[in-house]
Specification:
With about 140 residues, the protein is mainly alpha-helical. It is about 65% helix and about 0% strand. It has eight helices and no strands. Helix 2 packs across helix 3, helix 6 packs across helix 7 and helix 6 packs across helix 8. The longest helix has 18 residues. The protein is elongated.
Length: about 140
């Protein structure tokens, strides 16, 4: 849709692109369906704290959410190199196991995404650096 749209309409477009109902989408943001409905209909403004969650979890440019004009979600990260991300996630798993650090799956994925966003590639240098960092963390228990 081209033309001027509200923040609520843009949030609704993100939800629809994700293929989620109001209940599931609201829960993923840490809010109730009622709150989400109020944002989507323009009865209330969404809190700013949802912007990083929308960027991270739904690959949406926060600037587009706040100031966009149409309801076509604008990507923040752009096209992903899924093979590189999978290799990095595999390295994270291997290094965690090697140093005996039991990170929950969401933390492991977050670490992989940080490495990915930082431009790291799976390889010996990345594993060596990650091993040192995770080993230091595991010793702090």
């Amino acid at each position: 849709m081209i033309g001027t749209s509200s923040i609520g309409e843009r949030i609704k477009a993100v939800r629809r692109r994700a293929g989620l109902g109001q209940e599931a989408f609201a829960a993923s943001l840490g809010y109730s369906r009622r709150s989400l409905n109020a944002w989507e209909t323009g009865a209330a403004e969404p809190p700013v704290v949802i912007l990083p969650k929308l960027r991270r979890d739904y690959d949406v440019d926060p600037e587009w959410i706040v100031m966009g004009e149409d309801t076509t979600p604008q990507a923040y990260y752009g096209p992903a190199d899924w093979d590189r991300l999978d290799r990095l996630l595999g390295d994270v798993d291997a290094v965690c196991q090697d140093v005996g650090l039991d990170l929950p799956p969401d933390r492991r994925e977050a670490l992989g995404r940080v490495l990915y966003d930082g431009g790291a590639d799976a390889g010996q240098a990345t594993r060596r650096q990650m091993r040192g960092t995770l080993l230091a963390l595991s010793l702090g228990k």
